Amino acid sequence: DGGITQSPKYLFRKEGQNVTLSCEQNLNHDAMYWYRQDPGQGLRLIYYSHIVNDFQKGDIAEGYSVSREKKESFPLTVTSAQKNPTAFYLCASSIADREDTEAFFGQGTRLTVV
Amino acid sequence: GENVEQHPSTLSVQEGDSAVIKCTYSDSASNYFPWYKQELGKRPQLIIDIRSNVGEKKDQRIAVTLNKTAKHFSLHITETQPEDSAVYFCALFTGGFKTIFGAGTRLFVKA
Predict the structure, then answer these.
(1) Least CA distance to B34: which residue of chain A?
(2) Which residue of A has its CA nearest to B46?
(3) Contact B98 A40 (CB under 8 A)
(4) Tens digits of per-residue pLDDT, A60-113?
């Protein structure tokens, strides 16, 4: 059963802690993305990667970091430098070598700072 | 940089009426324009897309139109039903493997 999986579904973080959100896909997609969604707002791009060992900053990368050591995995770390981390985080993947390509989303991780 | 504006932010219609959502963009190099539907608490999913070589595409009650000259594309839902209630996002694929999204339109279909 192919797809993209995010974990955990809910995550609570204390002030000053780093947390890592997992994203795994078995769709053999080269491109992977992280988006942040705030209540009533759209999807804002945090980071994206179109190939292993390479990634680019999106529009709101400050306070976040990523790695892309494997094609299947694109974990996102929310660092203590992110001042307002409470949000819904969505990971997505797509075929990278075509322009007209659908993005497949994970179920999301809801991060709350306590 | 690339930008896509989506209007309206909220849309309320009576069941059976039509709903139209419009997006405008700035990157003339964009050639792929998908629309995603996100139901409450769920992941966004593709519902229809259009490529720059066509002006209109239809799939049952859903249609999308594209005007590349004016740089806008629209989603049309006819004969709306309560299950159409969701947030709809337009998107475009820019050069450099990026997909950017509009801010979303929350559609309410009243029974």
Answers:
(1) A102
(2) A102
(3) no
(4) 999 999 999 999 999 999 999 898 999 999 999 988 766 667 889 999 999 999
pLDDT the model gives residue B95: 66
Strand-pair category, B105-110 with B10-14: parallel
- Shortest alpha-carbon distance between residue A85 and chain B (Å): 19
Contacts of A104 (CB under 8 A, 6+ apart): A3, A4, A25, A27, A29, A92, A93, A94
Terminal-to-terminal C-alpha distance of chain B: 41
Q: What is the CA radius of gyration of chain A?
A: 13
Whether B48 contacts B73, CB under 8 Å: no
Nearest-by-CA chain B residue for A47: B98
Q: pLDDT tens digits, residue range A15-56?
A: 889 999 999 999 999 999 999 999 877 899 999 998 999 999
What residues of A are in contact with residue B102 (Cβ under 8 Å)? 42
- Stated as kind and residue range, the H or E segment containing A22 is strand A19-25
Rounded Cα gap, residues A90 and A86, in angstroms: 13
Contact criterion met (CB below 8 Å) for B31 and B98: no
- Report which residue type is found at A104: F
